[in-house]
Fold this sequence. Notes:
Layout lengths: L12 H7 L31 H32 L14 E7 L14 E8 L4 E6 L30 H7 L7 H16 L5 E5 L1 H10 L3 E5 L3 E3 L10 E3 L2 E6 L17 H6 L4 E2 L2 E2 L2 H20 L5 H11 E3 L5 H11 L9 E3 L6 E4 L5 E4 L1 H11 L7
Parallel strand pairs: 1-4, 3-12
Antiparallel strand pairs: 1-2, 2-3, 4-11, 5-8, 6-7, 6-9, 9-10, 13-14
Helix pairs in contact: 1-8, 2-9, 3-4, 5-8, 7-9
Amino acid sequence: MSVIRRRLGSFALAASLLVAAFPGVAASPTPDAAAGPGARANPPLAAPGDDTLGALLRGASGAGERLRSGLNELALASAGLATGEEPTISYGADGRLTILLLGSDYRADYKYLEHTDVMMVVSLDPVRGKLAMASVPRSMVRFPIHPENRPPGGAKDSGDLRVNLLYDSYRRTGGDGEADARALERVGMDVAHALRVEIDYYALIRFSGFDALVDMAGGIAVDIPAAIVDPSYQDSPTPGIRFPVATDRLLKGGSAKRCAGTTKDCKRGIVYVRSRKGKVGSVPNSDYQRARRQQSFIVAAIKKVAGGEADLEMLRLGSISHITTDMPRTAADALWLRDRLSGVKAPVKSRVVFAPPTWATDLTVPKHSARLKLKEVRAWIAQKMPAVEVP
């Protein structure tokens, strides 16, 4: 049976690499830290009308970026050597590295229950160099509960409680103020039990943490195949947001201007991964549409960071303030993870949002809720996240 692994050593850097690409995320559990400016690669230079000079300038720009990346790696390596560190990360019993990513809507002065509207399992197959991703929509009810999390004689599922409130429920009912870590561990146990997947680590990020890490990465470039127009989203006093069709559009964190209206192009990453109303091209926007964007955003972030295009040491340190996780944050672990994520592929056929009607059944009670088709969901997990043998 699937379980969430317990370890003495775990690491939060994977979260900064994977979650810095997060969806519907929220604010940091610690006081908001100023968003770093991010060490972004300089754009290629070109001299109009002089291809030779333009090529030389582009080469110089690339060399400078490689030097910066090399110095950053040297700093990480030196930090590890100075303390005699060895990586403490290890694959699970199934040979994979699987992380539960949670994105919360909590922020400063928030007066409501905390919702983890993003619940995503990201699993690395180190043998084939592939990532598989599975998102559990926030509206799921009757979600299976791990036997250890049930009270004596308690129900086997969450009943009418939506899956995005499991974390908040565990925090509130933990007695003597159950620590975030224990509540997150219990959510991980439930997800592992429901999906029949081994979860090695968890990571939770909130609004300010997402904004800060995206800026520390120098922004994240995404492809937007269809325009997103959401007249309801309130990012500024002027309601509405718009993202145009684009290739490699750079989205930023807290450093970007607030989005104002549907006639101006938005550049805020958190808005891109949270918008769920209006239209995406000619089809309705939705929770399921944004979950797919969240996955694409994460893939883009992984490629940038693992490809040496962002300041890994800055992200490593930033994760300490902005991510709640059971993963260690050493320089040695950072390099280990970067090396294993470098060049990985995340094919669309290995990404899924467990949405109705294929993966869940819509319910009328509670309103706007659904229930997972566990047989189909577990079959997908077994096919796309199978055990592997690491050499």
